[in-house]
């Protein structure tokens, strides 16, 4: 995607993005009240830079600043015999919100999914994350599925 003033550029994450990515990923984890852990931050950065790992990343660049991140991976859908794209994490700098970064990241993932003949782009969000839900409701539909986590 070419640079256009006031419009985000979406591109794959690059090694030069490390410092800014770390800031945004730490802020994402803090937003969801996850415990601070440089072990997790280091591990995910390693995943994103390992071409053989299932997890991939995009960044949203506004002007010259990385202002948003998205982590995603393919997943098998045995019930439909297809493969989908799972959006694990989406976060934008609070100072850059309202400028279309989240929408642009999801649009890029949707385009990638179409180009790769995938069946769906799917994600979850917290039930109290109303600002994100407003965006999500405008571009996708909610499902009737309830999510469970078995504690290990």
Short note summarizing the structure:
The protein has helices at 18-31, 38-48, 101-115, 130-139; strands spanning 9-12, 56-62, 65-77, 82-92, 121-122. The chain is of the alpha+beta class and 152 residues long. It has a 5-stranded mixed β-sheet, with helices on both faces.
Task: Summarize the helices and strands and which ones pair or pack.
Elements: E1 9-12, H1 18-31, H2 38-48, E2 56-62, E3 65-77, E4 82-92, H3 101-115, E5 121-122, H4 130-139
Parallel strand pairs: 4-5
Antiparallel strand pairs: 1-2, 2-3, 3-4
Write structural notes for this entry.
With 152 residues, the chain is an alpha+beta fold. The chain has one domain (9-139): Gcn5-related N-acetyltransferase (GNAT) (Aminopeptidase, 3-Layer(aba) Sandwich). The chain has four helices and five strands; from the N terminus they run βααβββαβα. The protein has helices spanning 18-31, 38-48, 101-115, 130-139; strands spanning 9-12, 56-62, 65-77, 82-92, 121-122. It has a five-stranded mixed beta sheet, with helices on both faces. The radius of gyration is 15 Å and the shape is globular. The model has no long low-confidence stretch (mean pLDDT 95). Its EC number is 2.3.-.-. It comes from Promicromonospora aerolata. Residues 8-152 form the N-acetyltransferase domain. Keywords: Acyltransferase, Transferase. This is GNAT family N-acetyltransferase.
CATH topology, what is it called?
Aminopeptidase
Shape: globular
Quaternary state of the chains: single chain
Q: What's the helical proportion of residues?
A: 25-40%
**Count of discrete domains:** 1
Q: Give the CATH level 1 class.
A: Alpha Beta
Uncertain runs are none
What is the radius of gyration computed over CA atoms, rounded to a whole number of angstroms? 15 Å
- Count of alpha/pi helices: 4
Q: Major sheet, described briefly?
A: 5 strands, mixed
CATH-defined architecture: 3-Layer(aba) Sandwich
Mean pLDDT: 95
Strand content: 15-25%
């Amino acid at each position: 995607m070419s640079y256009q003033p006031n419009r985000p550029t979406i591109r794959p994450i690059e090694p030069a993005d490390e410092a800014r990515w770390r800031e945004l990923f730490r802020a994402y984890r803090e937003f969801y009240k996850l415990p601070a852990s440089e072990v997790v931050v280091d591990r995910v950065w390693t995943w994103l830079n390992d071409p053989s790992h299932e997890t991939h990343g995009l960044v949203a660049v506004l002007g010259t600043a990385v202002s948003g991140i998205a982590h995603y991976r393919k997943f098998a859908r045995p019930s439909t015999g297809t493969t989908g794209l799972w959006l694990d994490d989406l976060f934008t700098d609070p100072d850059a919100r309202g400028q279309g970064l989240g929408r642009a990241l999801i649009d890029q993932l949707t385009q990638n999914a179409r180009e790769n003949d995938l069946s769906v782009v799917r994600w979850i969000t917290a039930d109290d994350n109303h600002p994100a839900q407003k965006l999500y409701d405008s571009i996708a539909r909610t499902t009737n599925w309830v999510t469970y986590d078995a504690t290990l």
